[in-house]
Specification:
Blueprint lengths: L1 E5 L7 H10 L4 E5 H5 L5 H10 L3 E8 L9 H19 L3 E5 L10 H17 L3 E5 L10 H11 L4 E6 H5 L16 E6 L9 H8 L10 H10 L5 E4 L4 H5 L2 H23 L15 E10 L2 H13 L3 E6 L4 E6 L2 E6 L5 H9 L2 E9 L2 H10 L4 E2 L12 E3 L5 E5 L8 H4 L1 E3 L11 E10 L5 H11 L3 E2 L3 E5 L2 E9 L6 E6 L6 H8 L4 E9 L2 H10 L9 H10 L4 H10 L2 E5 L2 E7 L9 E8 L10 H9 L11
Parallel strand pairs: 1-2, 1-8, 2-3, 3-4, 4-5, 5-6, 6-7, 7-8, 9-12, 13-16, 18-22, 23-26
Antiparallel strand pairs: 9-13, 10-11, 10-17, 11-12, 14-15, 15-16, 18-23, 19-21, 20-21, 21-22, 24-25, 25-26
Helix pairs in contact: 1-11, 3-4, 5-6, 9-11, 11-16, 19-20
Length: about 625
């Protein structure tokens, strides 16, 4: 199976797009007509550029408003087709993609359309070229792939084929079973696109909200299973119209596109129980068993602030690195690392982003296999010198250039605390506050990067993604989406906003790229934890009295419980009989980083999203002058 990507997926000039596509490792490209029209050069120049980059120009597209036209328009569209063939000859491309007619002048009739395609096939074959037909979801007379296939079948010409586009098929909810009966030799091209589930017209949906497979909500897997039943082994390409992609880096989007195809085809092979032709198998998606540590890059001032809060939260300085200015702080099953090194990765991260989380280490079943899968999926590996006897822990780059480490029992990497660190005796250990584990991590990022990191996590780990939620911030709307494992051992909340006034966007701009905005710790008794924090002098985020007045009305809770929540600034949510209690510290580092304390009861799976506007409004009141605030 050959893979390709359409130039319409990317931002930039045609040269920049082709360079990005080649750098991502695609062997072929679809040239979108507008990209050629805007190119400052001849089609032959594009051909030479593509050849120099090692790219095959596999498709020229789209040819619009062709079939079913009355005279004199019919003669004009055939003349236009001949001009397209001239252009394709200069491009070195032999394949023209034709999409279904949307012109108000077009006439009905499958036989009429089939006759037009037979004639177009004759003209194409005379030049050693081919054409293929795609049903647009909003086509005037042909909007269903089954009708498009019938037209191709009746055209009965070897130079006339069929195009399947996952978006146009899936947004209409069309039955996929007939795909299995289509002759694979007549499927000249399959175009892939995912998208979120939306209620809007097909054209707007297609032009602005497409995404790569795995980034949206469309049933891509059943579509691919139906396609596989035909024995298809031809050209599989990405065609994505997306405002987000057009605002992002062409090279980053191209890499995401190839990663999405590698992931999708590997998953297809696993479902089929056989290799997909031309696709190398990947190591299995990693099983994540939890967070091993969260590492902070800090200077003296930021480190002192963070240490003070950690003591208040009940953490103890448990160990120091044998050769570096790095400390381990622990409580329950939580490990936090404070890195004050004056050189190396953490210091560089500190200089760029300020005091912040620079790395996360995840416990996985097989660290080497996880790193191999990440590399195969085009994630960027990271290596740095290690001292004598120290462990070399595999890592890849994460959000904003941070690191994601992988540790396991299998290779002994879980012994890092014994090998790389030596225990210390805390002279003044604080009283523990009952925090037991990292419940979840929340990362803020640029809006145009959110789908990229969603694919990064969901393709690397055995984890599912939640539907997108819109969260109301005093400065605008924040889009939030969760990647989590079935057992909750890994929960990562991704947040991004198009508004520059939201707290998430402020965190991204202040931190020069974002990263972990807050870490949530789990407690078995949040009321006991909050009481201990009060005794330790920790200032929690103040929640308005109005919230608790409303809670008395909408929640079936004892008055005593609500009074305790009010006293502890604790928020509440419920899913059926499952309950969620959570509270927040005030920001601790300059960029607005904070901690959350949560207690889950009865199998609660959410994150208290109903309380996010209250929390964000409360946090906005603590912002410096000039920032958006409420109340």
């Amino acid at each position: 199976m050959r893979t390709a990507i359409a130039t319409v997926c990317l931002s930039g000039t045609l040269r920049e797009k082709l360079e990005a596509i080649a750098a991502a490792g695609f062997p072929a490209v679809e040239i979108f007509e507008n990209d050629l029209l805007y190119f400052n050069g001849a089609p032959a120049d594009v051909r030479r550029l593509a050849e120099d980059l090692g790219l095959e120009i596999a498709v020229y597209q789209p040819f619009r408003d062709f079939e079913g036209m009355p005279e004199p328009q019919r003669a004009k569209v055939f003349a236009r087709a001949e001009r397209k063939f001239d252009t394709m000859a200069e491009l070195g491309c032999d394949f023209l993609m034709v999409c279904s007619n949307v012109s108000p002048y077009s006439l009905r009739g499958i036989d009429r359309a089939a006759a037009d395609f037979h004639e177009l096939g004759e003209r194409a074959a005379g030049r050693g070229m081919r054409v293929a037909y795609e049903a647009l979801a909003w086509g005037r007379h042909v909007s269903d792939y089954r009708d498009a296939w019938e037209i191709v079948r009746r055209a009965d010409h070897p130079a006339v084929g069929f195009v399947l586009d996952s978006f146009h098929v899936l947004v209409r909810g069309t039955d996929l079973r007939p795909i299995r009966a289509i002759s694979k030799d007549k499927i000249f091209l399959v175009q892939m696109a995912d998208a979120p589930k939306l209620e809007m017209d097909y054209l707007s949906w297609s032009r602005h909200y497409r995404s790569f497979p795995g980034q949206g909500d469309l049933p891509i897997e059943p579509f691919m299973d139906a396609l596989a039943a035909t024995g298809f082994d031809g050209l599989l390409s990405l065609e994505i119209f997306s405002d987000r992609f057009r605002a992002g880096s062409a090279r980053g989007v191209a890499v995401d596109g190839r990663r999405s195809l590698l992931f999708m085809l590997d998953e297809l092979g696993r479902r089929l129980g056989s290799l997909v032709p031309g696709v190398a198998p990947l190591p299995e998606r990693a099983i994540c068993e939890g967070v091993e540590f969260v590492e902070f890059a800090v200077d003296e001032v930021g480190g002192a602030k963070l240490e003070s809060l950690l003591r208040g939260l009940g953490f103890t300085r448990a160990a120091k690195h044998r050769s570096k200015a790095v400390e381990r702080w622990s409580q329950g099953g939580i490990n936090l690392v404070l890195n004050r090194e004056k050189e190396g990765f953490a210091h560089s991260f500190l200089v760029t982003h300020g005091p912040s989380v620079c790395a996360i280490a995840l416990k996985v079943e097989d660290a080497a296999a996880c790193a191999d899968r990440a590399t195969a999926l085009l994630d960027q590996p990271f290596r740095q010198p290690v001292g004598p006897g120290e462990l070399d822990i595999p890592a890849v780059r994460g959000v904003a250039g941070s690191l994601l480490y992988f540790v396991d029992q299998k290779s002994g990497l879980d012994r890092l605390w014994d090998v790389d660190f030596e225990p210390t005796q805390d002279a003044d250990p604080p009283a523990a506050a009952g925090l037991v584990a990292v419940d979840h991590l929340s990362q803020a990022m640029l809006y145009e990067e959110m789908l990229s990191w969603l694919l990064f996590y969901s393709s690397l780990f055995q984890a599912a993604k939640s539907p997108v939620q819109d969260v109301v911030d005093p400065g605008g709307i924040v889009q939030s989406q969760v990647v989590e494992t079935e057992d909750g051992s890994l929960r990562i909340v991704l947040n991004a906003s198009q508004s520059h006034q939201t707290l998430a966007s402020r965190f991204v701009s202040d931190g020069f790229g974002g990263g972990v905005q807050h870490v949530a710790f789990g407690s078995a008794d949040i009321f006991g934890t909050v009481e201990q924090l009060r005794q330790n002098g920790v200032a929690l985020l103040p929640i308005p009295e109005n919230y608790y007045d409303d809670l008395e009305v909408r929640a079936d809770l004892p008055a005593e419980t609500i009074d305790r929540m009010r006293a502890g600034n604790i928020l509440y949510d419920r899913e059926g009989t499952a309950e969620f209690f959570h509270a927040y510290t005030q920001p601790v580092l300059d960029g607005g980083f904070f901690f959350e304390i949560v207690e889950r009861r009865g199998g609660y799976r959410g994150f208290g999203a109903v309380n996010a506007p209250v929390r964000l409004a409360a946090q906005s009141r603590l912002l410096p002058p000039g920032m958006p605030r409420v109340g």
